[in-house]
């Protein structure tokens, strides 16, 4: 916790802090995700900037008390700009021994450890792998410990409501939340109304949860806390004025797709098969039927994309969403959309691979799959969102490119973006440029591969239009008639046209430019996707320390923006941090013959700012030697 | 066509594309193509509102020869593509063309699901019991012991019965015909009239890799005693003089072939076809010595694309006109000043 000067000169009942990182951790069934998201809402209301990172196991309900069943939710909030959920937590809330076991190493020395001693039975300690109670054997002495029997205090708080002991015990996350609200001066109103509406059909459950929430808060107000533990205040951040909401990446992607379809004046067909961490896109869109959205929960990944391609053939916007294993299954059908030159948006919410990999953990290892992962020369557009809120704009951009160029577009997000939330200034809808689609209607001289001279996009002629009856498919087509053609030169030219069409999109996007620092110098850090926040903060730290470091962030992965090669060559070194084993690095080296170097980390977790700073300094040290 | 223009009387020619047909000489697909091109005008279909979707294989070249909209997709996936086509525009008359390999091997999953969802389209499965386009390997409908390049000692795969697969999947319309039959158009018309997924198995001769495999059924001489053409409400009789028929054997819960006038069998013993009877249809899928043709099963059931459209209307009623501005403000928002 960084303490500001103001706090020292102006004694107040609350210590003022610039920024705080809190991690809530407990059993999968302890309701940590709800606790975290409620704390997030209250924190946004308090005017802080924030970023969150839910981190949960692949098992829905792992056996209680086990380390692999621990679910976590980290939030960083501050009185200044926040781009990441923070590295090491200042505060750890551990609801049981397993949660402590998994997370205590992350907590900063001197950090505050709020721990539910009610769950520290010998059985639970054993399940977590502790030989002795860590709260008693001195192994946690480096922290400021606040040991509380939250189980008991929760039961006391809700006993008058008359729930079963099991139901009563489930209110302990709200007791904890109440205490955390008091510690950091958050309001309870929003959570109270949320509980009232969530449990509208079980008023007793609502009452018990509210009683627990209040009891936790009252405990903080009245209890005599151990030395060094008191309440804090994190003043509001100076956010740009406007209307805000919290948004997660998958929410933003879903809304962006709907907005894109409206701007294109098209109905949308979203075909999908449930897969972590993309399923919530399907859930979101299934509730938006009134927007002309049809959702199709298909029998498998292939059918999901095939139905989307069929919908595009019929004049709707075909969209499919999945994660890496799903894209693997869809790749033949994506190739069909490339050959038939139909618009298609594929959202890949990346997760750890290969194979089933780490379903609930984040990674950026599907870049190769997106750019080149199909049979044949099969170019398409690849975009990558940088932040949860950016998913909205990149989804719109994916729709725009798909319909303008009659091409599949892959939008890469990842598990971290999908589930993380950030305060998001609501977009000015009137400022979004519509791009209404005009279907081809003129039978004069028609064939399905008539092209726009500028974009090379073929005409979109949809079934139901008299005089334009035609057949398309996966077989190569004659470029002048659209009929099947096995003619050697025609195939060469059609391959070239498909290549040029996608390559030419580079002229329709912003030229490469640096996000931080000068456009030439010692070291350029090149990032893409969800690492934007961590890299930005790391570069800020590095520049603050006087290093000649610039930062460039790529949203357009294929085609790459114009001017990128020249820009890369303006630096002595290029360093590419990615959550994979060097995929963008290889792409940059192959495209521009620059000696880009890779900084890789594949732990299923986002980059830590401190880790990046250290790695870059090490790299700078090497060039200095 | 604009609503005001006079309704054009279409002919076979209007549904015939300018593409040269490239199936092998003598292929059963020619007869099926001709039957479809002849039948569509009589159904009131228009070229612009008709879509043929196919997978991969000999049969799947079919769309290129129709002067309608067509999409020659990828192996096995035509039912899924067709589902998307129908969902996006329910006004279209959608036909799926597939084969025994395309529909029952690589695409078996999609066929299962398009049938049980009951998407309103017609599926024509050309069954020649062989892989033609890849040069003669055994298919999922090849008979046990079939000698092919990939089964030199004979196939050891148990074959699937396509109509049985369809009934098992929950199909609401199941029919069977053969390529050169004069009654094929009747089956096509019945399929088109049915609301929901209509499944038609068409026995089709492959003269190159599996010639004559259905001869017993399709030959003029042997055909009459091996073809049972079903008619709803009529006794299930066949034979050159309708002397044969099907009798229910209550002891074995099965249908047996009997001859009227022999062993005391009378006309009253012959089972009346009821195309809404699922159990009966099941028994008709695989009879000894005779092949049931025509409509085996037909039953009304909710149509997938109609249910989807109904929910879309419901959503508009419940949530009002779409409003992006309100959508983005759902839940909690706050203002920074």
Explained architecture:
Chain A is of the alpha/beta class and 625 residues long. Chain A is 36% helix and 19% strand. In chain A, helix 20 links the parallel strand 21 and strand 22 (597-600). In chain A, helix 10 (249-263) packs across helix 11 and helix 18 (532-544) crosses helix 21 (609-624). Chain A starts with a helix and ends with a helix. Chain B has 337 residues and is α/β, with parallel strands linked by helices. In chain B, 28% of the residues lie in helices and 20% in strands. Chain B contains 10 helices and 14 strands. In chain B, the strands form 3 sheets. Chain B has an 8-stranded mixed beta sheet with strand order 2-1-3-4-8-7-13-9, sandwiched between helices. In chain B, strand 5 and strand 6 form a beta hairpin. In chain B, helix 1 packs across helix 6 and helix 2 runs parallel beside helix 4 (108-117). Chain B starts with 27 loop residues before the first helix and ends with a strand. In chain B, 47% of the residues are buried. The model of chain B has no long low-confidence stretch (mean pLDDT 96). Chains A and B meet through helix 2, strand 9, helix 10, helix 12 and helix 13 of A and strand 2, helix 2, helix 4, helix 9 and helix 10 of B. Strand 9 of chain A pairs antiparallel with strand 14 of chain B, so a sheet runs across the interface.
pLDDT < 50 runs, ≥5 residues of chain A: 2-12
Number of strands of chain A: 22
Helicity of chain B, in percent?
25-40%
**What is the straight-line distance between the termini of chain B?**
57 Å
Largest sheet of chain A: 7 strands, mixed
Which two protein chains have the largest interface (Cβ within 8 Å of the partner's Cβ), and how many residues from each?
A: A-B, 69 and 62 residues
Sketch the topology of chain B as an H/E string, one letter per element. Answer: HEEHEHHEEEHEHEHEEEEHEHHE
Secondary structure tally, helices of chain A:
21
State the distance separating the first and last CA atoms of chain A.
Answer: 35 Å
Percent strand of chain B: 15-25%
Structural class of chain A: alpha/beta
Mean pLDDT of chain B: 96
Order of neighbouring strands in the sheet with most strands of chain A: 11-10-12-13-15-14-20
Please summarize the sheet with the most strands of chain B: 8 strands, mixed
